Known about the structure:
15 helices; alpha/beta; Rossmann fold; Four Helix Bundle (Hemerythrin (Met), subunit A); elongated; single chain; 15% strand
Amino acid sequence: MLSIYNTLTKRKEEFRPINPPFVNMYVCGPTVYDYFHIGNARSFIMADVIRRYLELKGYRVKYVMNLTDVDDKIIKKSIQENKEAKVVSENYIDAFFEDIKKLKIKQADIYPKATEHMEDIVKLIEELEEKHFAYNVGGNVFYDVSKFKDYGKLSGKKIDELESGSRIEINEEKNNPLDFSLWKKAKPGEPSWNSPWGEGRPGWHIECSAMSCKHLGKTFDIHAGGNDLIFPHHENEIAQSEAANGKKFVNYWIHFGFLNINDEKMSKSLGNFFTARDILKKYSAEAIRMSFIQTHYAGPLNFSEELLSSSGKGLEKLKNLASKISEGSVINKEGGITPAFEFKRYEDNFTSAMDDDFNSPQAAAVIFDFVRDVNKTIAENNNISNEFFLQVKGFLEKTAVGVLGILDFSEEKTSSSGELENSLIDFLINLRIEAKKEKNFLLSDKIRDGLKELGITLQDSKDKTSYKKIST
Length: 472
């Protein structure tokens, strides 16, 4: 039984989809004004792991991640770069897709853009206005939080406490400091769209409400995002959506913990701000994913170079076993013994960990226990059958590859075969050098000619022999 900690109810609950085996899941995506940072990457990767595990359990997940392509930050960046806001957003959308591919994040089923849903956004604001949850002040439309009696139910914040200690920007047009923008009147030079309230653009919160309901329905199963989005973003999404639609917005709210860099909060002012793109230049996607998976998704994570290095070293055990699997499946095509091994116990333990609110640290521990015990079995037995290696590979493909994304057999095979080929060439070159020193020119020429037939030409110089591969 899968249980999920629900931010809305503040407890773990049995997961019961609205329409099994279908699951509708919405994840807050990036505001595309820059390369996304490593904190965003944690949310994207952990949401990806949750989605993958649901699929392993047989659910058919409709996965939607929005792209906020109209926003104050995009407009500011467009002014800085002297480019149209649309050009800025499109450039960083392209970069976003490049980086999530490198991070082994599965593509969403739909990536809705705010600019492509203006009709839906305007319609939703009109419904809120008709139901007296919104008011227009000279082309600026605000949501009236006092009209929504359950405001604060996600974050646990109370309106009177928020008002007394409010740090929200003062706007004399608002009835209440907590009221938030649904539609912003156009300013000179800013991108804008037609609406019943005049030229303008939507507020951030209404975009997500409109896009999620458009693609997943007025009530859907899972909404996920970073802890920093609980208030006000997700709180405001609930207020808007439930006021307009008259029904529950989302059944399960999942939030990902904060990311610190070397024990300090990540920020540009501290100079410890890293983009995922920066980190990918030094570390593999598997190492990055492993560093996130070792901490429960909801907890805070201290991200550091040491953590990444340690994760990379830990993954060597997995990669080494992957190599043994490849060797075993080649050597023992037929025959051999199949040693007793409790595959089901590890499968059950992995499932038990992930069923407990997607406990990835425990799930990863199960995989490494499995690796240790498989290696012990291999060491204690000779002539192991191909069937055993296929079972080992099957477990790892379901778990380490399919759910956690910390291993890639296709890359391992390519890497291993390439490294082996290069090692063999180096061995033959060294053998040829020794033959020449011993004046065994017959053997020396035989090695050179044999390599040439294989598409490898040798180039002798005074100090060394190099080689070049020629495609045939």
